[in-house]
Amino acid sequence: xEPYKPILNYSPRLTSSxxxxxxxxxxxxxxxxALAVIGLMNAHMLRIKGKKLAMLWVVxxxxxxxxxxxxxxxxxxxxxxxYRLIAPIIKLPDLLFxxxxxxSLKTPYRLHMIYNGTYHFLFHxxxxxxxxxxxxxxxxxxxxxxxxx
Length: 149
Hints:
Radius of gyration: 20 Å
Strand content: under 5%
Order of helices and strands: HHHHH
């Protein structure tokens, strides 16, 4: 009779993640496009699959489209009324989008922290600065088009 041997061919899928709370800074300084890209990248790193990933993609596309339309329609009115309304008008939807991503990724992130306990900084692989710059350029173009109207 042979003694018990361990199974050596099992390899669990390791996850990695950014700090979920750091997505707040992406939303505040980067905007909706940066938050969608970094949030979906984090969902991929957490190995989210199936319907939940599809929901994240659909909501991200709808939200970014709605955000650009929202800014294009409301910024000219804000410039006519009071220029101090510009910052809240631009950033409030981004922060609501952050709440959506925070709620969606909270449970997989907590499980990842229990099993692995490590996370990457947002400057991991240089993704956050590049995506943030592109998103800020899109927001800047929308603001400039609203000013010139």
